[in-house]
Amino acid sequence: MPDAKTPVPHVAGRIRRPEPLIPHGSTLFEGDALTVLRRLPSGVCRCTVTSPPYWGLRDYGIGEQIGLESTMSRFLHRLVAVFAETRRVLAEDGTLWLNIGDGYTSGNRGYRAPDRKNPARAMQIRPDTPEGFKPKDLLGIPWRLAFALQADGWYLRSDIVWYKPNAMPESVKDRPARSHEFLFMFTKSEKYHYDWRAVREPADGGGLRNRRSVWQIHTKPFAGAHFAVFPPDLIRPCILASTEPGDYVLDPFFGSGTVGIVCHDENRRYLGVELNPEYVALAADRLKGRDGRVIRVNEA
Length: 300
What we know:
By secondary structure, this protein is of the alpha/beta class. 22% of the residues lie in helices and 20% in strands. It has helices at residues 33-39, 72-89, 141-151, 232-242, 258-265, 277-286; strands spanning 27-30, 45-50, 90-100, 155-163, 180-187, 201-202, 208-209, 214-216, 248-251, 269-274, 293-296.
């Protein structure tokens, strides 16, 4: 072997590491979440607020989209990889707020017919029933992902029940209709930034108290989107508790850009990542007139 003083010969075609993406103000990156995250500097964001795609809901015709994996385990594995890079991009005292929906086994049907009360619940695709599950089983994806992230190094600090008083109706007659989702609070380190005073809520006897773990927040449809969007009232407490003015907030599944809107309103900066060009255009239109830019990131 050559010693330490021997020059390393040049190898033609050597793979070059892509240039880092250095943030200069609020930015929406059009590209794959993992690709973009790998190019962001370590520790640049104070907080992440995001909601990944559901598993087996829709095919948007976008290569490498998350949610079309053939098995639930592959879906969870891909999300764990994305959030491992998210953890690197977070500051040491950073926080991740994660909302993800659940579902039921398909009984090996390849679709779900429209619900008369909720046409949006129709599915274009449905994965096969995972091994070990029975027809009509609740998948438990939110908790499975939470435990997988905990095992990967995240601190799982809280589970918040998002109660939706105006939840979409369901036609089911053999179980309670669902009116909640989970929002998980993870941290990168044992000690982290959490401003509990900034998110206090009214107490029953008057005054203010520490925010509780059940949040009653109405869903708010957005006319420009045909998919579920974050209500700003769900995002705002996360950002106020976990950041200070001027901090960067990351959303690797930016969708229609609600995280960016709340960041602008609260004097924070955002870094959003979105793979679907239609959603990028929608978010850019919603954020028009606010400071920010859009950058297309190709695979390197």
